[in-house]
Specification:
It is a single chain. By secondary structure, the chain is an all-alpha fold. The protein has two domains: about 1-20 and about 35-130, Orthogonal Bundle (Cytochrome Bc1 Complex, Chain D, domain 2); about 140-215, Cytochrome Bc1 Complex, Chain D, domain 2 (Orthogonal Bundle). It is about 60% helix and about 0% strand. The radius of gyration is 18 Å and the shape is globular. The termini are far apart. It has helices spanning about 1-20, 35-45, 50-70, 90-100, 105-115, 115-130, 140-155, 155-160, 175-190, 195-200, 205-215.
């Protein structure tokens, strides 16, 4: 009973915060036309005025997301990921996964279901344009070890600077505790995060290796 009350309240509050006037929707209604979010994002990236419109909508959404993900997507909570600077196509794919239960988080799954298409696309446009607040290394020896682990295990997919691409996450500057938990979930076969490539890449990493590599990645800009 308590669970259902909490979900209902969350849905109501999110709907109130994220309500966007009809005039702010795309001509013809981007959601009602059935246009895929990826196609909407790609089209907007070639239209500066549309991109600006979506950015403003996304900024409004992000004001609520800041409660967990921090202002501008730089999280202040160690177990919550940074969203700033993330590739918009990659973020949109995570939204898709949450929406169909491929990626599990009860709160995120419920939140995404109440977002309109323009809000989803606008949110990723906004976050992709923000900069992660950089945190300097506090354990140089651990960072040095992590650089070696990263070069052997992560660099071929996430890039030398950890910035990823449309299919691979930007992990540069990511919250170390969050990233460590994510890697362990891939390595240990958790149902929360599934990806065959990540499972294969991480299966030989020890907890010490993971601690080192996330310490290194957190220093990347």
């Amino acid at each position: 009973m308590v669970k259902w009350i909490r979900v209902a309240l969350t849905t109501t509050l999110v709907s109130m915060f994220f309500a966007v006037p009809a005039s702010a929707q795309s001509p013809g209604g981007a959601g009602s036309t059935g246009v895929a979010l990826g196609a909407q994002l790609q089209e907007a990236q070639n239209q500066p005025r549309e991109l600006e419109r979506l950015y403003k909508i996304g900024k409004k959404v992000a004001a609520v997301c800041a409660n967990c993900h921090g202002e501008g997507g730089s999280s202040v909570k160690p177990d919550i990921p940074n969203l700033a600077g993330q590739n918009p196509a990659y973020l949109l794919e995570q939204i898709r996964q949450f929406s169909i239960g491929e990626r599990r988080n009860e709160f995120m799954e419920g939140l995404i279901k109440v977002l309109k298409p323009d809000e989803k696309v606008g949110m990723v446009v906004f976050y992709s344009g923000q900069e992660v607040q950089h945190r300097p290394a506090d354990n140089p020896a651990l960072v040095s070890k992590g650089q070696s682990v990263y070069a052997k295990t992560c660099q071929s997919c996430h890039g030398s600077g950890g910035r990823g691409n449309e299919k691979m996450a930007r992990i540069a500057g990511q919250q170390a505790p969050y990233l460590a938990l994510t890697i362990k979930r891939y390595r240990d076969g958790s149902s929360v995060r599934k990806d065959p490539l990540m499972a294969t890449s991480t299966q030989r990493l020890s907890d010490a290796d993971i601690a080192a590599v996330v310490a290194y990645v957190a220093t990347l800009k």
